[in-house]
Amino acid sequence: MASSQKLTEYELKRLENIRRNDQMMAALKLHSKATELSASSKRQRVATKAYKVTPEKKQETEAPVVIRRSLRTRGMPPDYADSKGLDDTVEASAKVAKSSTASKPSPRDLGPLSVRDAYCGTGSDKVIIERILGVSKIPHKEFGVENGWGLKRSLDDSGSCLELGSLSLNEENIARVVPGRIMNVRFIPCSDRRIIVVGNKFGNVGFWDVDSSVQGEDGIHLYHPHPGPVSGISIQKQSLPKIFTSCYDGFIRVMDPQKEVFDLVYSSDDTIYSLSQRQDDMQCLYFSEGPGGLNIWDDRAGKCSTQWNLHGSRINSIDFNSENSNLMATSSSDGTASIWDLRRIPADQPNPLKEVSHKRAVHSAYFSPSGRSLVTTSMDDTVGVVSGANFGETSMIKHDNQTGRWISSFRAIWGWDDSYVFIGNMKRGVDVISPAQRRTIFTLQSPHMSAIPCRFDADPYNIGTLAGATSGGQVYMWTLG
């Protein structure tokens, strides 16, 4: 009694509820029923222990369930993540989508697509069609003479034709050309007009006519010819007005302004990662397909004339030497960049003339304007420069290339001679690397820069005109101020 007096009112109420519940369970005989049920379930488990229950087979059309697991739990080294950025995430998503659907692409997707059906911009696209046709009719002008730079420099001239401090970014030379992340940017080669072409991750191809003079027009024209990310754009002066584009979903199309169509050139179930052309052979397309494969599409035969397996993983870029078009450079996620002689590539066991090894994926490899050097860009935070007799000398220059998942990988390009290499940085600027000094010697910066420039192209007919594209769909164009 003394102990009960020490209990609080709440505790006394709790004890009373417990006693009343026990009385109710005893009246309903719930304890004995629970004991009998427990014994019955044990006997049933013993009786059915020897039988194996086969789960019901899932339908083949059911989409696969992708379980996210870390590299550590999968037993993979951290370096495996080099090539698993957003590009590969898009690729994996595309493969899952292809495997999980039984429907085939419609005939409209596989055949010619009119520019009217592909156009998704505002207003009319007749203006840009007419201007591309007009560019193709302009007589070819030799680089370096008609642009007011005097006589062309000799390849042995160690000086540069560009003063870095004179490059500037004006507010009117900034435009949002496409929605989303830009994967490729190219100038249409023309000495009298500046037209920039970009491809994004949504399959859009956008045109920016920088010199548009039509009142009320911003010069932006947007098309949607591809179902997936645009992996390559090839524009050659000799093949204008045709513009070739490829996408991760395995399609290559050519925009033919004369016929006003995006015609289908090639389709595949594998991913197409890059696209290029030789300057002396406009009838052939060189493109990478699948894990390490490179194909040559011959337009005259209407089929692939040659197929090689050159790398152990995807080929990220293809480039040709300006002085010797038989020399081809490839970069790969297998950690190597290679120089090949197209005349000496055996089908059974291809061997490169030169192989440059990096510790991580290599995203680009481009020849210099003279053809005497090669620049590579790798996720191992280096920019490689290969030069010398038979490309025998290799220098590795430190540069932060960690762009993360949501920004396109950096790809270093040459300027207008062999003096400078341009590459973006994570501080919204453009680093200028001197191969001779093996270091970054200058950085292009501007208060107008609001995003990180990732992919670049130098206008081949206007020295000092450099286009940088971002993951937000913007294009910045530096000019001589």
Structure description:
It comes from Morella rubra. Specifically binds 5-hydroxymethylcytosine (5hmC), suggesting that it acts as a specific reader of 5hmC. Keywords: DNA damage, DNA-binding, Repeat, WD repeat. WD repeats lie at residues 308-343. This is WD repeat-containing protein 76. The chain is an alpha+beta fold and 481 residues long. It has one domain (121-143, 160-480): YVTN repeat-like/Quinoprotein amine dehydrogenase (Methylamine Dehydrogenase, Chain H, 7 Propeller). Helices cover 16% and strands 33% of the residues. The protein contains seven helices and 30 strands. It has helices spanning 2-6, 9-27, 30-47, 86-99, 107-110, 115-118, 126-136; strands spanning 113-114, 167-168, 174-176, 182-187, 195-200, 205-209, 220-223, 230-234, 243-247, 251-256, 261-267, 272-278, 281-289, 293-298, 303-309, 315-320, 327-332, 336-341, 354-357, 362-367, 374-378, 382-387, 393-398, 413-414, 421-425, 429-434, 439-444, 455-458, 466-469, 474-480. The protein has a five-stranded antiparallel beta sheet with strand order 1-11-10-9-8. A hairpin with a 2-residue loop joins strand 12 (272-278) and strand 13. The protein is elongated. The chain starts with a helix and ends with a strand. Residues 45-68, 71-86, 88-102 and 143-158 have low confidence and may be disordered.
Q: What is the structure about, briefly put?
A:
By secondary structure, the chain is of the alpha+beta class. The protein is built from seven helices and 30 strands.
